[in-house]
Amino acid sequence: MVRCRAVIFDLDGTLVDAFAAVADALNVARAACGLPPLPLEAVRGQVGWGLSDLLARNVGPERVAEARPHFEAHYAAHHLAGTRLLPGAGEALADLARRGAGLGIASNKPPRFTRDLLERLDLAPLFGAILGPGPDLPPKPDPAMLRAACALLDAAPAETLYVGDMPLDVESAVRAGMPHLLVPTGAVPAADLARVPGVRLARDLLDVAARVEVGGLRSAPGDRSRDPT
Questions:
Q1: CATH number of the domain where residue 94 is located
Q2: Residues 53, 198, 11, 228: is their CA dihedral positive or negative?
Q3: Catalytic one among 10, 12, 17, 24?
């Protein structure tokens, strides 16, 4: 069991399957740069580090500014139809919210897309923090995004469980001073996740919810602002 006051989730590969929508938008951006399309499986394993990283890998760092508007325009128009909630996600979120856990999202996806999707799925009201990269929040694994989400949920990092689907999420949690669980629902097979040093694995999101005991923890006032690393 993990005793906590709040649970922060990654998005792509953790709560939703958006890989096809990302691949389609990336191929539109590649076409605008005169490059051929990539198959879904070639893109799937590259999702999770943020849009700038994805574009740099696939059109070259020098063409990111050229490609970004093409990606964003296509993704904005089509990602809601091309993204689905992963099995058990809705039930797990509802269960945690019912038991009083603060819920947050910390995703390397541009935050406007995350908000649009959560609103379309009727999940946005469940979350007290919906964060993504911005001028003051570098992408994960930098711990700033997770710490900012903890502050919005009024929970210290040590009181907050982080749930993700890839090795980057383990690093993010460790750097933020948070416990974590990974689910094998993204691009990384369970066998590969099991080899990540220090990893804690759950079977799926329903297993995550079953392992959470909500409430009871409180840090001393001075501990809540201390850098845990």
A1: 3.40.50.1000
A2: negative
A3: 10
Which residue is it, tokens 């990092």? 157
- Do 97 and 185 sit in the same domain of this protein? yes
Domain encompassing residue 41? 19-78
pLDDT, one tens digit for every residue, the chain (229 residues): 999 999 999 999 999 999 999 999 999 999 999 999 999 999 999 999 999 999 999 999 999 999 999 999 999 999 999 999 999 999 999 999 999 999 999 999 999 999 999 999 999 999 999 999 999 999 999 999 999 999 999 999 999 999 999 999 999 999 999 999 999 999 899 999 999 999 999 999 999 999 999 985 554 333 443 333 3
- Residue 46: name the closest of 63, 58, 34 by CA: 58
Q: Can you give the length of the chain in residues? A: 229
Q: State the DSSP string of 122-177.
A: T-GGG-SEEE--BTTBPPTTSTHHHHHHHHHTT--GGGEEEEESSHHHHHHHHHHT
Of 106, 103, 122, 95, the residue nearest 164 (C-alpha): 106
The question of whether 122 is a catalytic residue gets the answer no
| Helix count and strand count (H, E) for the chain | 10, 9
